[in-house]
Amino acid sequence: MGSGMPSANISELFDSYFEIVYAHSAALRDETYKIRYDVYCRELAFEDESAFPDKMERDETDSYSHHYLIKHRRSGMYAGTVRVVDPNLTSDAVLCPIEQYCSESITDEVLNPVKLANNTYCEVSRLAVPDTFRRRTGEKGKPFIYEGERISMTETEKKAFPYIAVGLYLAAAAHFINSPKLSHIFVMMEPRLSIHLRRTGIDFRQIGEVVEYHGERAPFHIDKERLLGGMNPMIRALYDCIETSICAQVSEHTPELWAP
Fold it and tell me: What is the pTM of this model?
């Protein structure tokens, strides 16, 4: 992972500076849309800024998605977001983004949403980490402004930055693992990210070709056994920490969410 931290300390390092937030309210979901606007519209220009005059990037898929945030404890800033698209959240016939926009890229004849029962799979989607929290160690003297206050990150805090994206994937993983109706999870991601995740023991299987979709991405799949069984000890410790937090929040705010 390149942080230089002992594996036993990764979970502790992450938890010292960040917390996972289940976006159970409209206000929290708005925070996810703001991050997505900043990253997908303003920074990367994947989406048209003018289509979102309120500076919140959202689409029809959000109505049947679960959203998670990572919050920087010291500043109160949100450091990333991800959503889990779950057709079980609506009685309408709906599609995951991978089916809507990238179905032709899937070449696997078995691990394909069109071959699976609609209520057995979900998709990790719209992962976004603001530029502020992608700065690496060594980038000194670059404070940022938050609510009128100049905030500088310590070098120790920056060592946790590479785990923000991993933490978001683990939040989605915890949601997936605890959802009794779900057996499969799909994601469109850059192949280099899949290699990065594989080093942690999260071994997504590529099921199709690379296509242009918010950059060069390919379709990937993983099931619960492969997901949990492959994590290396340091990532499993981080996963357990994140899962505990998510389960407590879901139990408090939407206890019916993971009912059989």
Answer: 0.90
Q: Give the class (CATH, top level) of 7-253.
A: alpha beta
Integer Cα distance of 90 and 203 in angstroms:
30
Q: What angle do CA 174, 178, 184 make, to 5 degrees?
A: 80
Can you count the helices (H) and strands (E) in the chain? 8, 10
Q: Are 127 and 84 in contact (CB under 8 A)?
A: no
Q: For 6-47, write each residue's pLDDT tens digit.
A: 445 899 999 999 999 999 999 999 999 999 999 999 999 999
Contacts of 7 (CB under 8 A, 6+ apart): 232, 233, 234
Give me the residue spans of the domains in the chain: 7-253
pLDDT digits (tens, 9 = 90+) for 178-224: 999 999 999 999 999 999 899 999 999 999 999 999 889 999 999 99
